[in-house]
Design goal:
By secondary structure, this protein is an alpha/beta fold. Helix 1 crosses helix 3. The protein is globular, with a radius of gyration of 15 Å.
């Protein structure tokens, strides 16, 4: 089951947008658990992995944050397939992120000692952790 967390700041104008698009992207997909969390300070943003509002975490990972992106209590700009800025990921980008996460075993938040493999999809990247002994990791986890 996918675990989805939407992180927003109070009164984020893009919160309803991501909620609507996420509902559309989830249609027809397997069961998912959705948690919403209001972030009010930088410490909380760092602890939760918020890279601006709204942030979507799928199984603890922000699939739209480039490596090294700092955490932040701020508005967030997402790039769509054409490169235009928007306040939330497109439905197609959400569907792809959900599909990729659902297809992978053991996708979790990435601890520093985890085996790492990076998927690069136009406009975003996903870091994930392979389950020990999966046999699909190039470093032989």
């Amino acid at each position: 089951m996918l675990e989805l967390t939407v992180l927003t700041v109070p009164d984020c104008p893009n919160d309803p947008v991501i909620q609507e698009r996420l509902a559309e992207a989830l249609a027809g997909l397997p069961e998912a658990r959705l948690v919403r969390h209001m972030v009010t300070d930088e410490g909380e943003a760092a602890r939760l992995g918020m890279h601006g509002s709204p942030t979507l975490l799928i199984n603890g990972v922000d699939p739209f944050a480039a490596q090294g992106t700092p955490t932040s209590v701020s508005c967030r700009i997402y790039r769509d397939e054409t490169g235009r800025g928007a306040g939330a990921p497109s439905v197609s980008a959400l569907r792809l992120a959900l599909q990729r996460a659902d297809d992978l075993p053991g996708v979790t938040a990435l601890p520093s000692t985890a085996c790492r493999r990076r998927w690069v999809v136009p406009g975003w990247a996903v870091w994930h952790r392979w389950r020990a002994g999966c046999g699909r990791c190039s470093s032989g986890c």
